[in-house]
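Why should sequence recovery work at all? Because a backbone constrains its sequence more than one might expect. Tight turns favour small or flexible residues, buried strands favour hydrophobic ones, and helices have their own preferences. The token representation captures these environments compactly. In the example below, the structure is given first.
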């Protein structure tokens, strides 16, 4: 379930800030009650982070079954192996909290997306999304483009964050189904992320939560 090389995401909640910071690292080794990770990199700034002993996180990783697993952890030591590592507590597999992918927050949003395929059987095109989540995206393909289930696509999305920054997200997606949007003749195609860097997935999740907050604020006005 938790293999060497697994990508791990760490969420750090600061006492004086409501928002959390997210960091990406990889599992280097593990023992019964501890894990060894390489030095985390801040997902937003891409800078290596250094933490004192006792720093607490919520950690998560994607298991072999495709589900996300979360657990509470804290820094207990820094050591030198083949590379410098940080030692974190590990509560054991029985204490992991399993979160199925369908529990990703999905929001309706229109963002730009470029689509092509590795086999060059598809003419590359740009369009917009209908919705997005950490697990996949629904797009509105041009009327002259026919996408079929099980087709593998390369996707490039442009995410505008509240900070004013733009993130370019690269992912490989699997076409699941196409159907008409209710009450119209517009066709929507659902695509599941098959290969996506975990840092990109975390950015998408953050974008979705930002959009949720924007919607709530607009409703209060």
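From this structural description, the recovered sequence reads:
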């Amino acid at each position: 379930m938790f293999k060497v090389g697994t990508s791990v995401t760490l969420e750090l909640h600061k006492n004086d800030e409501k928002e959390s910071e997210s960091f990406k690292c990889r599992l280097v080794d593990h023992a019964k009650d501890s894990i060894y990770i390489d030095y985390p990199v801040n997902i937003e700034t891409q800078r290596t982070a250094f933490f004192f002993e006792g720093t607490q996180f919520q950690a998560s990783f994607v298991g072999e079954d495709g589900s996300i697993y979360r657990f509470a952890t804290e820094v207990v030591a820094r050591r030198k192996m083949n590379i410098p590592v940080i030692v974190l507590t590990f509560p054991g597999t029985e204490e992991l909290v399993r979160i199925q992918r369908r529990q990703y927050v999905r929001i309706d949003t229109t963002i730009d997306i470029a689509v092509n395929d590795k086999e060059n059987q598809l003419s590359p095109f740009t369009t917009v999304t209908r919705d997005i989540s950490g697990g996949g995206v629904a797009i509105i393909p041009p009327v002259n483009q026919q996408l079929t289930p099980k087709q593998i696509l390369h996707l490039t999305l442009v995410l505008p964050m509240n900070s004013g920054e733009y993130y370019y997200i690269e992912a490989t997606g699997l076409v699941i189904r196409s159907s008409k949007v209710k009450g119209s003749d517009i066709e929507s195609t659902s695509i599941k992320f098959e290969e996506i860097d975990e840092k990109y997935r975390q950015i998408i999740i953050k974008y979705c939560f930002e959009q949720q907050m924007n919607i709530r604020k607009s409703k209060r006005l």
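A few observations help interpret the result. Residues 52 and 201 are 27 Å apart (CA to CA).
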